[in-house]
Design a protein that fits this description.
Helices cover about 45% and strands about 10% of the residues. It is α/β, with parallel strands linked by helices. Helix 5 links the parallel strand 5 and strand 6. The N and C termini lie far apart (about 40 Å). The relative contact order is 0.14. Keywords: NADP, Oxidoreductase.
Length: about 250
């Protein structure tokens, strides 16, 4: 009999890779399907998986690709029959600029990966989650997608607005599926390649200041994230927007 089964998207680096490693550390009997767009080039993930005795299983998972997501779900169904926890983590945040300078195509691109990709992943894994005794679907959001931080001058509207949409999606999934634990979770300000790219493109200094004040390592964030997810219940966390520090965020 297998231990808990997890599926994580965007698992090749940053928070995603740290989540894979934290789950393997915390649950030695768990099976972790680690989704990445290009498994053949994901050296850090592959190296970690090689030492996991088959527990960590890299899979090609492309955000918003319907057929690819279905193929991954079919593989998991064949191998283990269910998924206990899906963590949609794959995201992009690679356009920085004020609203007036943000091209519509950049907004569409961010929504396609960050929002539509999460919708497609839920639809692909729905049957596998229903086969679990304790199913959870917990998208990784962003604190900046909360109205609490609406006054921040960080010019990443394309990214954060897509996370606002993701929050609504997680809430609707909660409302429409009484058998499931679903909620969006903000991982904190995490020192990753994504954050470094945003800092480099931000000429206001706002993101760098935020990083200096609050930045944590992917490993620290992953520990906090998994502590919340593993202990989450529908009655307490379900349908709400949570910060990695354990506080509830306003929509």
């Amino acid at each position: 009999m297998t231990g808990p089964v997890y599926l994580i998207s965007g698992a090749n680096r940053g928070i995603g890779l740290a989540l894979v490693q934290e789950i393997a550390r915390k649950h030695p009997d768990a099976i972790v399907y680690a989704g990445t767009r290009n498994p053949s080039t994901s050296k850090d993930l592959n190296d970690f998986a090689a030492g996991s005795s088959g527990k960590v299983r890299p899979v090609k998972l492309v955000s918003s690709d319907v057929e690819n997501n279905k193929t991954v779900a079919e593989q998991i169904e064949k191998e283990v029959g269910h998924i206990d926890t899906v963590i949609p983590n794959a995201a992009i945040a690679d356009f920085v600029g004020p609203v007036i300078d943000t091209p519509a195509e950049e907004v569409r691109r961010h929504y396609e990966v960050n929002f539509v990709g999460t919708l497609i992943l839920f639809q692909a894994t729905y049957k596998l989650l229903k086969a679990s005794q304790k199913p959870k679907f917990v998208p990784i959001s962003a604190g900046g997608a909360s109205s609490k931080y609406a006054g921040l001058t960080v010019a990443i509207m394309a990214y954060l607005s897509s996370k606002v949409a993701l929050n609504y999606l997680a809430r609707k999934i909660h409302v429409e599926n009484e058998w499931l634990v679903s909620f969006p979770l903000a991982p904190g300000v995490v020192v990753t390649d994504m954050l470094a790219g945003v800092i480099a493109a931000d000429n206001t200094g706002a993101v760098a200041n935020l990083n200096d004040m609050q930045g944590m390592s992917p490993e620290e964030s992953a520990k906090r994230v998994m502590s919340i997810i593993d202990g989450a219940t529908r009655e307490k966390e379900g349908g709400e927007f949570w910060d990695v520090d354990g506080s509830k965020l306003p929509w």
